[in-house]
Amino acid sequence: MKKTFLLLLVLAFTFSSCEKDDICDANTITTSRLVISFYDINNSSVLKNVTDLTIIGEGKTEGITFNGSTLINASTVSIPLKTDADVTSFRFILNYGNTNPAVVYEDILKFNYSRTDVFVSRACGFKTEYTLDPLTPYVNTASDVAVEKWIQYIAVKNSIIANENETHLEIYF
Amino acid sequence: MKYIFSICLVLSLFLAQAQETTTLKNVADSTSSKAIIPDNGNLKTVKLPDEKQEAVVPAKTNRYGLRVGVDLYKLTRGLYDSDYKGIEFVGDYRLTKKYFLAAELGNENKTTDDTRLNFTTKGSYLKAGFDYNAYENWLDMENIISIGLRYGFSTFNQELNSYKIYNANPYFGEIPAIASGEKFNGLTASWIEVVAGVKAKVFDNVFMGFSLRLNRLVSNKKPGNFDNLYIPGFNRTYDGDFGVGFNYTVTYFIPLYKKKVEAIVVPTKAQPKR
Predict the structure, then answer these.
(1) Does residue B210 sit at the A interface (CB-CB below 8 Å)?
(2) Which domains does chain B have, with CATH numbers?
(3) Closest to B115 in 3D by CA, of B159, B168, B176
(4) Residue A25 CA neighbour count, 13 Å, CB half
(5) Can you say whether the dihedral through the CA atoms of A149, A150, A154, A158 is positive or negative?
(6) How many Å apart are CA A100 and CA A98, to the nearest integer?
(7) Contact between B168 and A30 using a beta-carbon 8 Å cutoff
(8) How far is CA A9 from the centre of its chain?
(9) Would the ipTM clear 0.90, i.e. be above it?
(10) Rounded to a whole number, what is the distance in Å from the CA of B15 to chain A's nearest CA?
(11) What is the pLDDT of residues B24-44, one digit of tens each?
């Protein structure tokens, strides 16, 4: 009988020790970022790299870090939206920090969306899923009216932002 | 995972079975020695007639009845844990020498405060099954070392008090917990429980007991956009379907009737004549 009891004790401890669900696994899909791809306006099927693009959120001074850098030189970028507001504005600055101010372009992009908080797990809590507003998903303005916008065309590819595996927005310039 | 559970069950059954056979042997041994020892004493003082010396164990009776009590852990936890209120009544009825019908009935009101979630679970539960006493008592002792099975059923509701949003990219800063207050009613769950327990008679008809439980969910009606992270009676749920529990009981035994244990007659020829 003692053996049975010991066995059960051991079992109890082995089961209680596999308490993996206290840390939110990095592979779990939680709140997703908005994935933007950049295309060439002259050849709309070709991805085009941006040069030294810096994206600064409304009310922030430092740019969004993407792949370890705030200067983006790639054809795709992911940016976090606010989880506590239905609007997020960003300054998209091309050729950021360039000594020649004539090539530095700054556009302001405002995203309108609705939010749903979705339960994930005990360790992760909830995540926010966004749906871009079907009527005015974005508003694009040049920060300096005298200067033309560098972004020429924007297309919404996926209005539901629930994962980062797909492009949600396409920017042509 | 399913198989591990069933293997454990089978294993524990085998162990219990193995115990049973050995204890039976012990009974035979102990009774025979008991018969010998008083005889030795008697022979020295009183001269017994040589013939007709039957070594019969004094008739042993087992008491049958109902044992009822309460879980002290749940009862006292409410005193020091403001997030917990609960009570559990326990009871068992002796069916045969070794088998007991057993049940637990309880109610819990628990607020769980995790790092990302805060929720309150309220509900009642009933567990019913049996206990098998694998302990062979000496004389008129009534202690129990048991292994048993229960089927548990709980009906409850959850209230999500507040939650946090997990954001791997907190560029706009960490957002404080969001108050919710959303209620999820009419939830149910059922499970199978393996119980290992001990009960010791502390004084007349009063027993103290302790039991350890391993639970496995059979059914679980989950709320939409939330989960049953705590189930009354089952306790905290883990990623799988497993759970653990224990109780610490004080019970009172109400004797209803007595049954004689068949006296084991030791063959007289075994007695050496002096």
Answers:
(1) no
(2) 2-61+259-267 (no CATH), 64-258 (2.40.160.20)
(3) B176
(4) 9
(5) negative
(6) 5
(7) yes
(8) 47
(9) no
(10) 6
(11) 444 444 444 444 444 544 444
